[in-house]
From TrEMBL:
Keywords: Glycoprotein, Membrane, Symport, Transmembrane, Transmembrane helix, Transport. The chain crosses the membrane at residues 69-87, 99-120, 141-169, 225-246, 258-278, 301-322, 334-355, 457-483, 495-514, 526-547, 567-593, 613-638. Residues 698-709 have a biased composition (Polar residues). It is a multi-pass membrane protein. It comes from Ceratotherium simum simum. CDD domains: SLC6sbd_NTT4. This is Transporter. Belongs to the sodium:neurotransmitter symporter (SNF) (TC 2.A.22) family. Its main location: membrane. NCBIfam families: Na_transp. Coiled coil: none annotated. Residues 680-727 are annotated as: Disordered. The gene is LOC101396771. Pfam families: SNF.
Amino acid sequence: MPKNSKVTQREHSNEHVTESVADLLALEEPVDYKQSILNVAGEAGGKQKVVEEELDAEDRPAWNSKLQYILAQIGFSVGLGNIWRFPYLCQKNGGGAYLVPYLVLLIIIGIPLFFLELAVGQRIRRGSIGVWHYVCPRLGGIGFSSCIVCLFVGLYYNVIIGWSIFYFFKSFQYPLPWSECPVIRNGTMAVVEAECEKSSATTYFWYREALDISNSISESGGLNWKMTLCLLVAWSIVGMAVVKGIQSSGKVMYFSSLFPYVVLACFLVRGLLLRGAVDGILHMFTPKLDKMLDPQVWREAATQVFFALGLGFGGVIAFSSYNKQDNNCHFDAALVSFINFFTSVLATLVVFAVLGFKANIMNEKCVVENAEKILGYLNSNVLNRALIPPHVNFSHLTTKDYSEMYKVIRTVKEDHFSALGLDPCLLEDELDKSVQGTGLAFIAFTEAMTHFPASPFWSVMFFLMLINLGLGSMIGTMAGITTPIIDTFKVPKEMFTVGCCVFAFFVGLLFVQRSGNYFVTMFDDYSATLPLTVIVILENVAVAWIYGTKKFMQELTEMLGFRPYRFYFYMWKFVSPLCMAVLTTASIIQLGVTPPGYSAWIKEEAAERYLYFPNWAMALLIALIVVATLPIPVVFVLRHFHLLSDGSNTLSVSYKKGRMMKDISNLEENDETRFILSKVPSEAPSPMPTHRSYLGPGSTSPLESSGNPNGRYGSGYLLAGTPESEL
């Protein structure tokens, strides 16, 4: 027996020592368990049993290096939302003013909960199902809900990667196919496509050439074969990346996590050299302070924090479970959170620099078109030439000259000004035009790139970046599904992973119908947000209030070698749960006040129109939310009434060859107690693995509230009066 074990300490002390089996055997030397014999019977010559199971912690795969692990976490957390959702929210919610609520919520909710998920995954070394089963069996449904949410997100997220693949291959031509409207030839007649003429070339290409979208979610329109093939390619890429677990996905992360930063850096340099880039950046950083007090802004900022860090998905826990126990996950949490925020700001700078350039182009186009209208009115004597300032030259008309001329005409022709149909052509109006989500990447940004020199090169780089960003997030999402299932049910890794990809592809055909984009909106905006919020709240409650914040902090101190800041104690215990409860309430109220809907593209009008989901779609949306959260109450009820085993009648311990047992399964409490020579059952061992702190014989486990008198496992033992030689 090692000299620093508690049993050795007991021999030199009159105090009783309470020690879990995991603690007792944590310092045992590794042995060949396959050659060891277990004598269970009490009589001489009792039945012997060969035990062949190896310790799972010893067999668990591990990251090749700390860099590989960090890149995996960055690849999962930094995704497509950093490129298009964060800039959109900045534009919509007050520019630089939006950064204030986002930073506040990142500090009080994001980083503490990200640290919590990293810590429990690293400490327990299981996926989300195993982690929350260990922490609190009655809340074990959290892990199953996380898997379901990951499935929902993965289904539509890979469709977006498919869209990027489509645009990527379309970029290898000059001019870019979305740079001009198609021309329809009818004999000697050549007519521009009406839908394109009413909108724009990039908008037409997105809605008609890429999606071939229907007018509403109720009009299926059949499968879009081009996007079906792209979805198949996307799932094939993801399958090859994750089929071997972290052995394959870890290598992919070196490229998929780093390449987007190379592209962003190139775009930033190129964007800053564009005419009008400064206008876009200044517009972005000019704060609208009134937005900071808007509750809706804070709600959207909190939702973005959840999605940006991947909280509640299980991917963070899965990745950290492959770490060594002495890894400094506190540093990892701060580093990944900072890089995530830095990436969002960097992407926003790039987007607004490019959109500033686009706004100047569109503003100049507006000036030219309206100047032609004014010339027409002058030639037809609708307007008097005396209204035109003498210094104005229509051959070299500047935006300043047009603005001056516009104000004069508006003042003089006040009664009949609206009939002239003149636009003010203000740069601010162009910069204020909000383009959300996919529209930002596939419409606004692609349109700006058509004005770049060597536009195909920039287009190829941009969409290759989107593919890699999406791939990194999909690897983490798939880990959130496969890792807990494989850990819990011991299914074959490769077979299960391939099966998941095949299943997801066929279900994902829903999103490559002509109406598929509307289902993407349903899943992206509504089906995951509320379940994720509930999951994260319960994760916090399970650790802070059921397991116990003080005990968890002590576990972290022993694991990390230093005590985390007291700040985390108060965040986990009070601030974060309260903030998330308010967020959940606000989300439910928002759904009740504003019925869910989507932006539909109406072909005849060549314009978007906001439509509410029909009754059947609302029923589907509610069903998705219920399915995602249902495992939580179901597992709670089943374990509360002992209809589902929580594993409390199973004991696993390691031993030295020829001395002790390795595994005893399905023993009753009294049998286990007698076997370890204990007369008085003690408190439950920590649900965390080895090297748990010494609590003493009078300590109370926070998990006793589970209803089991002997705690979480029902197998605590008092090792008093047992000579070391007997072990």
